[in-house]
C-alpha cells in the first residue's frame, strides 16, 4: 500500500477535478482491498493508530459522516465528530475561527462538509493538517464520485466506454459535478438529463451531452444515476409540482425500458421515493445498486484516509 500512496501527489482531497486517471485508479484499487477487509468478522486494523481524524459537518449528513467515522475507526484512528448547525454560523469569520481552534488541537485529517461552495478549499489553506471535502455547496463531493465509480467498476469491470446518464437536479448537485469530472477522466460518456431550470448553463463545456427528455437521454445508457431535488439550495420554484416532476423526470420501470436492457440504477441518497425515483424500482435488487453504494462508501473513505495520512507524512504535498 505504501508504493500506492506515494504516487498520490496531493496533500488534500478537495475535489475530483485535478486528479489524474492514475490517482483515481490507485484510490479505487486500494478501496477494493478495503471492501474485502470490511467483509471479514474482524474489521479493525491499526494503519492509522495514533492519528486523529475530525469530522466537521456544517450541514446534515447520514451516510457520509457515519461512513467516515466507521472508516477512521476501522483503521484504528481516534475519530471526533463535530456537527455545527448552519443557522448558528456567522459565515466566514466563524468558519475560520472554528478551523483555527481545531488546528490548535493538532488533528491529522479534517473531513469537512459545508453549505458554501469553496469553503472547504478556503479552510485547507489555513490548516496544517490534510483536509477531505465531504461535500461543499453545489461544488464537489469527491468521495461520493469515488464510491460510485467503485460500485460501477465492480459490476461492469471498468468505466471506459460506458454511457452514464445523470438525471434530475444537476444545477444544485455536487454529486453530479464530481461524477462528471471522474467519468470524463476515466473515459466514460456522460449524459445529463433534467428540466432546463435545473441544468447549469454552459455545462456542455464539460464534454457532456444534455437532454431534457428522459426517454431520449436514457436510450442506450448502461448506468442511470438519479439525483435528489435539492430544495434546501433552491430559492424560489424550479419545478411546477412534485407530481409533474415525477411524471416527466422520475425514474420508473416504463422510462427505464429506454436504457440498455441490463442497465443498473444508482442514487447517492437520501432518496425521495416517488419524487425522483419509483419506490419499488429503488428496492429492486436486480436493477438497483443503491445499497451497494453505501457499502462501497466505507471502503472508499478508508482508502482516502489511509492515502492522505501517508501522503502527508511523506511530504508529497501538492494541492
Ligand atoms: N448526499 C449527497 C450530498 O450530500 C446527495 C444529496 O444530498 O442529495 O450531496
Radius of gyration: 19 Å
Low-confidence stretches: 313-318
What overall form do the CA principal axes indicate?
A: globular
Helix/sheet category: alpha/beta
Number of strands: 9
Give the SSE order as H and E letters. HHEHEHEHEHEHEEHEHHEHH
End-to-end separation in angstroms reads 21 Å
Strand content: 5-15%
* Small-molecule binders: aspartic acid
Helix content: 25-40%
Largest sheet report: 5 strands, parallel
Numbering strands along the chain, what is their spatial order in the largest sheet? 7-6-5-8-9
Mean pLDDT comes to 92
Question: Number of helix segments?
Answer: 12
Any overview of this molecule?
The chain has helices at 2-6, 21-38, 63-74, 93-104, 119-126, 142-156, 174-185, 214-218, 242-249, 253-256, 279-282, 290-313, and strands spanning 52-57, 78-83, 109-114, 130-136, 163-167, 189-193, 209-211, 223-226, 264-266. The longest helix has 24 residues, at 290-313. The protein contains twelve helices and nine strands. 40% of the residues lie in helices and 14% in strands. It is globular. The strands form two sheets. Strands 7-6-5-8-9 form a five-stranded parallel sheet. Strands 2-1-3-4 form a four-stranded parallel sheet, sandwiched between helices. Helix 2 crosses helix 6 and helix 2 crosses helix 12 (290-313). Strand 3, helix 5 (119-126) and strand 4 form a beta-alpha-beta unit. Mean pLDDT is 92; it is low at 313-318. By secondary structure, it is of the alpha/beta class. The two termini are 21 Å apart.
Amino acid at each position: 500500500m505504501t508504493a500506492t500512496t506515494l504516487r498520490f501527489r496531493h496533500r488534500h482531497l478537495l475535489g475530483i477535478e485535478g486528479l489524474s486517471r492514475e490517482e483515481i485508479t490507485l484510490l479505487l484499487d486500494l478501496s477494493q482491498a478495503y471492501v474485502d477487509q470490511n467483509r471479514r468478522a474482524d474489521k479493525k486494523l491499526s494503519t492509522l493508530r495514533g492519528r486523529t481524524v475530525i469530522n466537521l459537518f456544517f450541514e446534515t449528513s447520514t451516510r457520509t459522516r457515519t461512513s467516515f467515522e466507521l472508516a477512521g475507526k476501522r483503521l484504528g484512528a481516534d475519530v471526533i465528530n463535530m456537527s455545527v448547525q448552519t443557522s448558528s454560523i456567522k459565515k466566514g469569520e466563524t468558519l475560520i475561527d472554528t478551523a483555527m481552534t481545531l488546528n490548535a488541537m493538532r488533528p491529522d485529517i479534517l473531513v469537512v462538509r459545508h453549505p458554501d461552495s469553496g469553503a472547504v478549499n478556503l479552510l485547507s489553506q489555513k490548516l496544517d493538517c490534510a483536509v477531505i471535502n465531504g461535500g461543499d455547496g453545489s461544488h464537489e463531493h469527491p468521495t461520493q464520485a469515488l464510491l460510485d465509480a467503485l460500485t460501477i467498476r465492480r459490476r461492469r469491470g471498468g468505466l471506459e466506454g460506458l454511457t452514464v446518464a445523470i438525471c434530475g437536479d444537476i444545477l444544485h448537485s455536487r454529486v453530479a459535478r464530481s461524477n462528471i469530472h471522474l467519468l470524463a477522466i476515466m473515459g466514460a460518456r456522460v449524459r445529463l438529463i433534467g428540466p432546463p431550470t435545473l441544468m447549469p448553463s454552459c455545462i456542455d463545456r464539460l464534454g457532456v451531452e444534455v437532454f431534457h427528455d428522459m426517454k431520449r437521454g436514457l436510450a442506450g445508457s448502461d448506468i442511470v444515476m438519479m439525483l435528489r431535488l435539492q430544495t434546501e439550495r433552491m430559492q424560489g420554484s424550479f419545478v411546477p409540482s412534485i407530481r409533474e416532476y415525477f411524471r416527466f423526470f422520475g425514474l420508473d420501470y416504463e422510462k427505464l425500458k429506454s436504457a440498455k436492457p441490463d442497465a443498473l440504477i444508482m442514487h447517492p441518497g437520501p432518496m425521495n421515493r416517488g419524487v425522483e425515483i419509483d419506490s419499488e424500482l429503488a428496492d429492486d435488487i436486480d436493477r438497483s445498486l443503491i445499497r451497494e453504494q453505501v457499502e462501497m462508501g466505507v471502503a472508499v473513505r478508508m482508502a482516502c484516509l489511509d492515502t492522505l495520512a501517508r501522503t502527508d507524512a511523506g511530504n508529497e504535498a501538492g494541492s
